[in-house]
Amino acid sequence: MKGYYGIILFFLSFSNALFGQKVLPPIYNYKIFDYQAASQNWDVAVDDSGALYAANNKGLLYYNGEEWILNKLPNNTIIRSVSVLDDKIFTGSYEEFGYWQKNEFGLLDYTSLTHLIKNYTFTNEEFWQIISFDDAIFFRSFSTVYKYKDDKIEVIDVDGVVTDMAAYNNQLYIAGGGTGIYKFHENKFISIPNLEALLGKTIIAVASIDHKLFIGTKLNGCFVFENGILQEWDHPINRELKKHQLNDIVPYPENKIAFGTIKKGVFLYDKIQDSYINLDRETGLQNNTVLSIFHFDNQLWLGLDNGIDRIRTNAPITYYTDFSGAVGTTYDIAYVDDVLYLGSNTGIYFFKDDVLQFVENSQGHVWDLKVIDSELFAGHNTGTFKVSKNTLELVSSVSGGYQIVKVPEEENSYLQGTYIGISKFSKNTEGTWEVQPINGVQFPVKQLCFESKNVVWAAHPYKGFFRLRLNDALDSVEEVQEFSHDAIPNNYNVKVYNVKNQIVLYADGIWYTYNAILNKIEVFEDFTKYKGNELMYNDGDYFWFIDNENSKEIFYTNLREDNLSIAENALKKRLVPDAENVVRLNDSIFMLTLSDGFAKINLTKLNSYLKNLDVPKPQLSYFKDQKHRFALTQENFEIDYKNSQHISFQVASPNLTKPRYFYELSGAKEQINYVDTGTLQFENLPNGAYMVKISTVSIDGKISEPRVISFTIAPPWYLSVVSKVVYVFIFLMIIFLVRRYNRKKLERKQKNFEEKMDRKQEEHLATIEKEKLAKEIKLKQQELTSTTLNIAKKNEVILELKNMVVMNKDKFPSSSRYGAFIKKLDKSVNDSEDWKRFEVNFKELHEDFFERLLKEFPKLTPKDLKLCAYLKMNLSSKEIAPLMGISLRGVEIHRYRLRKKLQIDTSEYLSSFLITF
Fold first, then answer.
1. pTM higher than 0.85, yes or no?
2. Do residues 439 and 477 lie in contact, with contact meaning Cβ atoms separated by under 8 Å?
3. How confident is the model at residue 515, as a pLDDT?
């Protein structure tokens, strides 16, 4: 935004303040629990960037505006002095001095210089001061001065105690000794003559100011040495320094001097104005004992006996703070007859002779202070009073005087909103104020404004807006117009204003205006940009807004090119919620009510300050991953994936007080944001290359040149180049193996198919062979059966023939002939050739039958085997008898005997046993 200004407010507190000093510069307190070290800070110094170094009991404190770091000496001794020269920070301690330098990680490393001292032994010395003079560094203890130059150290003895040293007129001076002041000449200290006034006085500090040497004593104030003449400093502040034990003197730009004391904090003297202010514990310091002072870029750093404080010496915004709590919350401010009045929740206060005083009998809540015809009216919880310094005059007894507004086109007529309605104030010809309630309004009215002489708008705290038409006498309501929820959705805590003769309404963060022609509520386009911002002040040309919904930021604008803002974090929640108020004293001075005082804003000074403000590029303090702190010399930070879950880095703008930052993260993940701290943290970023551009945001909203930080998160091991090569190899191997597997599978399938086909072929052939064999067996069985039956038939015929022969034996001519014939018949029945043929055919069908029988039943005879063969063929006894040439009875007997030999139970068929054997 063109002409956009922003300011971060920090203030200082004090209780019994003077108006000449009732508004004071901001003070920032850094407490022990902030910097986590000891309480005492013996010396302070600031480098070119604005970073602070403090000589603390615990070590060297470093503060870059974002982070405190305590650096301890190897021997853990107290550091008494510190001085910055280029990139070295020199410190002095007990029998030890040296310097610190930042390493590649941004941390301080210590280098001792005492080893350069040859043939010398310390005598319990502590080094209380370090200064640079004539291309050399001088270290001061209470007894000796050490000169460090060209990597050599020279010991310079001094008679007496050395309490301070300073460069003056291109020469080095020290304080102490037997006569008071010495100057360094030809490598030794020479006493300055004619300083008898210093005899018996303890010199505590010396400083070169305006070509004069200021000599500060412990209890006798300051003396001025110029052109060889010593005089006591003739100024009222010197009386204060005598009372409060002077401890340090530091000049700073614009002819100003800071005097640090042991008992009363610091005195800031303005030579041009010839005035001074005192800052102590009652006015915002943490401690009244100032051990050290350092000035840098309109800021004073104070090393205290308990803490560290920082003072903005040229702040365009100053503050009054009531630390006692007696004043309470300020609700309104008025300035009349050169007297400043405060209205608070505890009563009315005014400044008399720069001392804040309470107006007697004004106790109670004050809502409004209004100047009418050079008279001050106070809207009070118990009524409305006319105030004149320390006196009150009751004007109206109606409770709760809120806002008083003038009636248009009428002299000496005003309306006031109250707890119970609206009252009319009229001044009669005698100069007396008369008050009467307006009939027709019986609800609390916190705000009101005129649309015209007879039309007034009233804001109810809970029920919204009312448009009231009054009679000509302005003592009664003739018409009340309310507005539906369609026009104004929310009626709670609404506000009404007259802006350039337009009725402007604020409700639920939205700005509206009343269109009198259409008699309707419309959105107010002029304030569209300030949605969610309430109006604290307007004069038709300039406006003060506050963002009460989000940032609590305050804006000052003319709705065109002139704008400034006051950030909420600067106000530290000191604004009065829902009762924020801005009071104009003149064209450039505005007052802002606070919960414990007020702020004074000098717009002219503020604009000049912002115009000359240089916004520094932020410095990189550190860069860390989950395990490591990286060297700041790297252009790109390489982070292992396993350590990338938490990445943090810090940038700082040490010379600014709590600045904001704007950053842009680009890469695998993108972010853009404003932040209130220079420490950024990123969690679980994806792997890849990143770039962060981070800039300091100044108090006027400008963005500095960005600090570019590049870092790369390596891929996880399973996504590294080696892993990818392995993955490619594995992939190719998988392809190869899959192809090989498929080929083998195809081959196996082909082989299985071929084997299957072969098996099928073999099975088919076997089946054919089996069928053929079965047919052959069947045929042989048939043949065997047929042959056997034929033999049996033949034998049966022969046997029948034999029987016939036997029966006709007597018919044979001779017995021999008969016998021969019978013998031949018997031979035919028992023909061995028939049996052999039978046996051959039988064995072809049952090749091992006889062997198995004999193996299991070795007692079987050939006849038994023959019977077994016939039974296996399932021949009946009748069929067997002719084959064996015996009778049927003989077969049965033989079967019986065979059963016994075969040990077959009577329940089992003999033929069945043999068939299955």
1. no
2. yes
3. 93
Pick the CATH number of 846-917 from 1.10.1200.10, 1.10.10.10, 1.20.120.30, 1.10.3720.10: 1.10.10.10
Which residues of the chain does CATH 2.60.40.10 include?
A: 619-719
Q: Given its phi and psi angles, is residue 168 left (phi above 0), alpha (psi -120 to 50 degrees) or beta?
A: beta
Mapping DSSP onto H, E and C, the string for 507-536 reads: ECCEEEEEECCCCEEEECHHHHHHCCEEEE
Using DSSP bridges, classify how beta strands 6-7 and 563-566 pair: parallel, antiparallel or unpaired. Answer: parallel
Judged by DSSP in three states, 412 sits in coil
Residues of the chain with pLDDT under 70: 1-22, 177-179, 568-572, 700, 828-832, 834
Give the list of residues 6+ apart from residue 311 with CB closer than 8 angstroms, or none: 12, 25, 26, 27, 28, 266, 268, 279, 299, 300, 302
- Candidates 663, 653, 665; CA nearest to 699 is 653
- CATH number for the region 619-719 comes to 2.60.40.10
Is 652 within 8 Å of 646 (Cβ atoms)? no
Helix (H, G, I), strand (E, B) or coil at 476: strand
Residue 434, C-beta contacts closer than 8 angstroms, at least 6 positions apart: 425, 426, 427, 428
- pLDDT of the residue at 416: 96
Backbone angles phi, psi at 914, to 5 degrees: -75, -35
Euclidean distance between CA atoms 166 and 146, whole angstroms = 14
Q: Which CATH number fits domain 402-531: 2.30.30.40, 3.40.50.10860, 2.130.10.10, 3.20.20.70?
A: 2.130.10.10
- 118 CB burial (10 A radius; 0-12, 13-18, 19+): exposed
Six-digit token string for 792: 């049996």
470 in Cβ contact with 477 (< 8 Å): yes
Residue 583's beta-bridge partner residues?
Answer: 591
Share in percent of the chain as helix, strand, coil (round to 5)? 25, 40, 35
Distance CA 379, CA 362 (A): 11
pLDDT in tens, 666-706: 999 999 998 889 999 999 999 999 999 999 987 767 789 99
Exposed, middle or buried, 885 (CB in 10 Å: 0-12/13-18/19+)? middle
Beta bridge partners of 805: none
Angle of helix 862-872 relative to helix 849-856, nearest 10 degrees, comes to 120
Distance, in Å, from the CA atom of 43 to the CA atom of 164, rounded to the nearest integer, reads 13
Tokens of 784: 């065997």
- 311 sits in which H/E element: strand 307-312
| Domain span(s) for CATH 2.130.10.10 in the chain | 39-157, 402-531
* pLDDT at res. 450: 96
Which tokens is 399 given? 């409770």
Which residues, in sequence order, are CB contacts of 917 under 8 Å at separation 6+? 849, 852, 853, 872
Closest CA to 680 of 622, 615, 633: 622
How many other C-beta atoms can be found within 10 angstroms of the C-beta atom of residue 276?
19
Helix (H) or strand (E) holding 842: helix 832-845
Alpha helices in 545-674 (DSSP H): 568-571, 603-611
Is 125:142 a contact under the CB 8 Å cutoff? yes
pLDDT 10s digits, 424-471: 999 988 888 999 999 999 999 999 999 999 999 999 888 889 999 999
Does domain 39-157 fall under CATH 3.30.1330.10? My reply is no
Give all strands of the β-sheet with 290-295 in edge-to-edge order.
Answer: 27-30, 307-312, 299-304, 290-295
Longest distance between any two alpha carbons in the chain, whole Å = 206
Q: How high is the pLDDT of residue 95?
A: 94
